[in-house]
Write a structure and sequence with these properties.
Structural class: mainly beta
Distance between the termini: 64 Å
Number of domains: 1
Radius of gyration: 24 Å
Number of strands: 24
Oligomer: single chain
Shape: globular
Order of helices and strands: EEEEEEEEEEEEEEEEEEEEEEEHE
Strand content: 35-45%
Length: 369
């Protein structure tokens, strides 16, 4: 090149539409594009508690960290904070077909793998308040119980591959880690991609009325207060196993931790759930105090409504009390104490969102919500 001359490089930029669009999980609100249209409830990895049955042997179970996506409508950015919410489930939706991964459980010497399925494709009738963070919604679940062997209760996810089950050798991601019983040395890493292979021996039909307020299970008129879920005049319906009211010890209080919502010192069971109360004559055995009560909590989302900035976030603790019917499978019904009460506490973080633009020029199609 001659002295004083310069080489000229030409750069041409061309926009190429993306072949993959990020689709919204929910349609825009009927109240306009600035109104919240989606709520994500992220259940925390610790601090949850599931109690099933009257015997106390199925209490203090950890609920895995599971996000629940709900579509919102009817609220807006400045005048109406109360939203109608619905949870859409099934193949092709963000919530999928199961509520969390399989859950290994060793209760009363009975090894069970529990799989929680969404019972309905659309869960409606819920209410969520973007100003207060309050949530009320009932989740219908069907929990399938698989009888297993003690050394292989549920299929594991190891090295991103399923070990055992219907998808043996298939690709998986760990969705939760459980301790089936009081043996802390044995843990299970499980995945929604690794279901059991056999047929379930029983199914629990659960309608779980979650609230950030107070949930109380009271007996019907004339019903024994100690047996709030018992059938009338049914001597086979189990009642409370003991006088309930003592602090828990032993495996029912294996660890002391501080409740992030209240600052109170609470007990964690060896199986990971939060201990409530135990029998006065056996403080290692959990029980239901009468009436069965669980208390939720809602934090005001930030930035506080009607600030137009989204997403908004805030903590929550969802609580529910409900009845669990008999399965008709005697080993399960007798060990858990079915029919009997059930209760759950689910702490976590809530995210309130407005519609996001599609990155591929708006050519995408919303998910089937």
């Amino acid at each position: 090149m001659a002295p004083g001359m310069h080489d000229v490089n030409r750069l041409v930029l061309r926009c190429v539409p993306s072949s993959v669009c990020t689709q919204p999980n929910c349609p825009p609100s009927s109240r306009g594009p600035t109104a919240p249209n989606e709520l994500v409830l992220d259940i925390a990895a610790s601090g949850s508690d599931l109690d099933l049955g009257s015997t106390g042997l199925g209490h203090n179970l950890l609920v895995p960290p599971t996000p629940v996506h709900a579509c919102l409508d009817g609220c807006d950015a400045a005048t109406t904070p109360s939203c109608d919410m619905r949870v859409v489930t099934g193949e092709g939706t963000v919530n999928g077909t199961t509520f969390g991964p399989p859950r290994p459980l060793l209760v009363g010497g009975l090894p069970l793998c529990l799989v929680s399925l969404w019972a309905e494709p659309v869960v409606g009738g819920g209410i969520a308040n973007v100003a207060t963070g309050a949530v009320d919604v009932t989740l219908p679940l069907r929990v399938q119980a698989y009888l297993a062997s003690p050394d292989g209760i549920c299929p594991r996810c190891v090295g991103r591959r399923c070990q055992g089950g219907a998808n043996d050798g298939g690709v998986c991601e760990v969705d939760g880690t459980f301790f089936p019983g009081a043996v802390l040395e044995e843990s299970y890493q499980v995945s929604k991609a690794c279901p059991p292979a056999d047929s379930p021996v029983a199914t629990l039909a659960l309608n779980v009325p979650l609230t950030t307020g107070t949930s109380m299970l009271e007996p019907a008129a004339g019903q024994d207060p100690a047996r709030p879920c018992a059938a009338p005049n049914d001597p086979t319906s189990a009642g409370a196993p003991c006088a309930c009211g003592s602090d828990c010890t032993g495996d029912a209080c294996a660890f002391h931790v501080t409740d992030s919502a209240t600052g109170a010192l609470i007990c964690l069971d060896a199986r990971g759930g939060v201990s409530q109360r135990c029998c006065t004559d056996d403080t290692t055995r959990p029980c239901f105090a009468t009436p069965v009560t669980r208390v939720g909590h809602a934090a005001v989302p930030s930035p506080a409504w009607p600030d137009p900035r989204y997403p908004k976030s805030g903590g929550f603790s969802l609580a529910a009390t409900f009845c669990v019917g008999a399965t008709g499978t005697d080993p399960i019904d007798s060990v858990f104490g079915f029919p009997g009460p059930g209760a759950v506490i689910l702490p976590g973080k809530a995210s309130w969102m407005t519609p996001l633009p599609l990155p591929c020029g708006g050519g995408g199609t919303p998910a089937p919500y």
